[in-house]
Amino acid sequence: MISALVLVNTDLDSQEKVKESLKQIEGVEEAHALYGVYDLIVKIKANSIDKLKEINKLHIKQVAGVTSLLTLMLVEDS
User: Fold this and answer.
1) What is the pTM of this model?
2) CA 3 from chain center: how many Å?
């Protein structure tokens, strides 16, 4: 499994609605609100890098209210 953290910015006043929408996406393990430069942090898991890209591009990025994202791939310890 490949894991990543996605830092998400949202439209003004849509943080909570976006967070709840993201939690419904297959592959999203966690979603939490943040204070600071980014509005949300989301942990996702997928079987491949291609599937991870699909979750980001076709699902997370398409949620109404999402304005930008930054994806950080996690290094798995052996």
Assistant:
1) 0.92
2) 11
Domain containing 50: what range?
Answer: 2-68
Q: How many domains does the chain have?
A: 1
Closest C-alpha to 6, from 77, 69, 74, 75: 69
CB 39 within 8 A of CB 9: yes
Instruction: Enter the tokens of residue 34.
Output: 């943040």
Residue 38 domain flag: yes
CATH number of the CATH domain containing 11: 3.30.70.920
Of the candidates 60, 61, 46, 51, the one whose C-alpha atom is nearest the C-alpha of residue 3 is: 46
pLDDT in tens, 39-56: 999 999 999 999 999 999
